[in-house]
Amino acid sequence: MLGVIALDKAGEEAEWLRKLVENVPGWPKPMLTVCIHCDCQSAIGRAQSAMYIGKSRHIRRRHNTIRQLLSMGVVSIDYVRSKDNVADPLTKGLSRELVHKSSRGMRLKPL
């Protein structure tokens, strides 16, 4: 469930950014699809599934929103393994080695 909520929020942000960039003069049109990287295969499967199995209306709305964004070509979802996910330091504590690896992945310079 949390994965679908996160995908919905990321999709909403991608749609907003896409609309913002569309108004920039000289920006190439049509806009490319925004790729969302997700490390939760079950969330990806749920988002791509046409059927929602659940009783919660607010989760159903989020499911429908991300499905609609996928079908319109606003976003695409790619699976990334947790160990290759450079956003991990922003969501949980990591060992020093993984912090250095993800910092290099984000192209941050060491102090």
TrEMBL record:
UniProt organism field: Mikania micrantha
InterPro entries, per database record: P-loop_NTPase
CDD domains: RNase_HI_RT_Ty1 (cd09272)
The name this protein goes by in its record: Uncharacterized protein
Annotated Gene3D superfamilies: P-loop containing nucleotide triphosphate hydrolases
